[in-house]
Structure formats: structure tokens, C-alpha cells
Hints:
Layout: H1 4-10, H2 19-33, H3 53-64, E1 68-73, E2 82-88, E3 91-97, E4 103-106, E5 121-124, E6 128-129, E7 136-137, E8 143-145, E9 164-170, E10 173-177, H4 186-189, H5 193-196, E11 205-214, H6 218-225, H7 231-234, E12 250-255, E13 258-264, H8 278-282, E14 283-289, E15 293-298, E16 301-311, E17 314-323, H9 325-328, H10 331-344, H11 347-360, H12 375-390
Antiparallel strand pairs: 1-10, 2-3, 2-5, 3-4, 4-9, 6-7, 7-8, 9-10, 11-17, 12-13, 13-14, 14-15, 15-16, 16-17
Amino acid sequence: MLALDRWLSADNISLMLSTDNRAELGRILTDIGCYLDDNPPALSLPPSAYTSPELWQLERERIFNRSWMLVAHVDQLAETGDYVAVSIAGERVMVVRGGDGELRAISPICRHRMMPLVETGAGRTDTLTCQYHMWRYGLDGRLRGAPHMAANKDFNPRDCRLPQFAVATWNGLVWVNLDADAEAIGAHLDLANDEFASYRLAEMVQVESWSHEWRANWKLASENGHENYHVLGLHRQTLEPLVPGGGDLDVRQYSPWALRIRVPFTFPLDVKSLQLNEVQKSNLSVLWTFPNSALAAAGERVVWFGFIPLSIDRVQVLGGVLTTPELAADSAATAQTAQFVTAMINDEDRLGLEGVQVGAGSRFAERGHLSPKEQPGMLAFYRNLAEALGGDQTGSG
Length: 397
């Protein structure tokens, strides 16, 4: 079980909770803690887990301040000054390619009067200039100019630098972590090399990308990716013919931070530019990294997702489609890829999850019994959630 008082004291967090709010949070954590049992309940999370402001605060501190987030592919950050900026649970982060060729993750908040230096999204810039008072920073985060500050004898411009975060790449995918001293993400993802090496991820190029905002709690988005049962309803015309919702999931847990889910195709894919075995041709293989990042390998195409939490009921859905250089140069294959994107990335999931978020606020909502078709993935996610909130995971991965 997760002890609320131990959680608060362990992280030295002082939350002004009313007696009722403390009791409600305690009930939520107790329910989540049950997923650590040898025989966890085959039930969904309590509805309040998607609406509780107190749980959201714990998630910000315990999960999002120390977890790796998948935010880009290196093709988006190829040139000096290319950047991707996101907001992780309210904390702005910018990943930028420096003049020395290195990727850096920095806080794009001016050290003078706290104005963001760039908007969230992607772009290219030579310097980071605050439009409030025109303070200017280099792509390494160091202060390059501060108008009319020489007379302030207490200010030393050499000591002024934008805070740095952890950044890492793995097979062309770019990750950030608000904990600058976080455990390397590659140590966990490398455990999947034996199953994903044949896809030549490091050689793949990005041919499509997107950024959407959904009105749903981040956990709903992660749950949705840990099961295929919902394809029966949400994707009857798009995905059901390819990856039926009635198929059995095969789940392999590599570590508390990384797991693989296999979903059987209706028929094996025809693959020409990769040397895949029959299992890989016959299954969608999804590599999940807790809490909210995934890549889904389907033959010669791989889709990556980053479900970045914005607020308690908002999530930014980042992603892209990767394929082999051979297919990227083939116009007919590019058209097929566009069709693949339409099937995989559309409004069906958004509409479904936004509906569930509304339902979670009902006074009459309750925990649902999980189908055997969704239990393997969902219970694995819930177990990792319980471990993260309980403080058993240290650093990140």
C-alpha cells in the first residue's frame, strides 16, 4: 500500500490539505497500491485518479520531475538552432542543437523577469532573446547580453545561465528529464535491443510529425496505449481490420521503466526493406517507457508517441512516423505511409478519451472490471504507477 504520510515526509513536501482531501487522496493511493500485490485486482483506477488535484500534485513531484519524456526525433533537430519546446506538467523545457553540434535541454525562462524566451512548439533561432527587456542568451544557455545592467554591482553576468536538464538520444529518438542527474534512459531501452534491432531504428528517417492537444488526463492516454481492446469500438474502420481488438496481448517487462507489448496483425505484413522474422512481421510491437512514451513498430514503419502532461485534464500528443530511407524515397510508399498515419493518428482516440475524462467526473462513475484482453498491459502500467508514486523507483529511466 502507498502511505500518504510517508510519501509527503519522504519528499519534504508540505501540502495544505483539508481533512476530506487528505482522506480522499489516501483512498486513491490505497487503491493504486493494491496493484503491487501478487494478485492485483482486475479493475481500472478509481475515477478520482483522473480528477484529483492532490494526486496531480503528487504526480508532478514524484513522476514528472524525474522521468524521461520522449519529445522529438533527431531529424527535427538536425541544424544549429533547431529546437523543440514543450511544457512538462507546467515546467517549460527547450531542446536545442548548439553551434558545437550538441543537443542541450534548457529552461527557456529568462533569469531576469521570468518571461518565456520561446513559445512551445518547434522552430529555429540563433539566440534566445527575451522580448520583455531584451536580455539575450546563447544556445548553450549562457547570458550574452543584458542592457543597462553594468551599474548593478551585485550582478555578475558570468554567473547567469539558463538551468540545464538531462537530454539523451536513443536510436534517433530524443528524450528529456527535468532531473539533471537522472539515470540514463539507454540502460533500460537497450534491454529491448534483441527485439527491435532488426527495425534499423537509428537509420530510419521521419516522414510525418504532429502535435495535438487532448482534453484528457495523461493516464487515460497511457492506458489507451497499453491495451488494444478499445480498437473494437473506437477504430472499427481504421485499425480493427489490421490489428483486431480481440487479439491476445503478449507483454514483456524489461524493467520498471520499459516494457514491450505485442499485438497480433490480422495477417503478416509484406516487408521488403528490412530483414524481419515471422514474429515481427506478424505483430505490432510497442516499446513503452513509463510514464508516457512509446514507439510502435509495424513492419517498415515505426510510430513514436510522447504524451506530455500539460495539466490535470490536458495532454499534448507529440509523435512522428519513421521509415527506412528506401521507402522514404519512394513516392508510392510515401502515399501508403500517409494512409498508415491516417489510420494510426486520428480523432478517434481523442474523442474517446475526452469522453472518458467527462465520465470520470460523474458522481456515479466507478471502477470498471478489466477484460482479459486488456489486463496484461493495463495491470503492468498500474504496477509501474504504484511503484513510482510509492517512491520505489529512484532516478529515472
